[in-house]
Amino acid sequence: MQKTVVLGVIGADCHAVGNKILERALSEAGFNVVNIGVMCSQEEFINATIETNADAILVSSLYGHGEIDCRGLREKCDEAGLKNILLYIGGNLVVGKQDWSDVEKRFKGMGFNRVYPPGTSPEIGIRDLKRDLGIED
User: What confidence tens digit (pLDDT) does each residue in 8-18 have?
Assistant: First the structure.
């Protein structure tokens, strides 16, 4: 059975190129991708996930405000009945240079299952997604 993922860029971030690259890579890997585009609110991610019965939410953020934009997302997912939804995020998530291990720890503390630094190849996320969803290659 094909797995569905909701993909989008959160907040006021309008970086569309990476979003399109991820959409294509995920589709070619066999996922049904619901791309909600750029400048998306937390509620748009949640509503798309509920409407499509998606298996994971993939959040992208490149403009450094990911921490602000994502604060409370896990709690909102839980409240919407998405307690077990996989929640991934990647990109340039914070302003300035910060130690990546601190950034990753902070986002995992916010309820994200996987956190990826800038420059992570789509194949790494796809590999993790397949593993987390129990999909065998």
Answer: 999 988 888 98
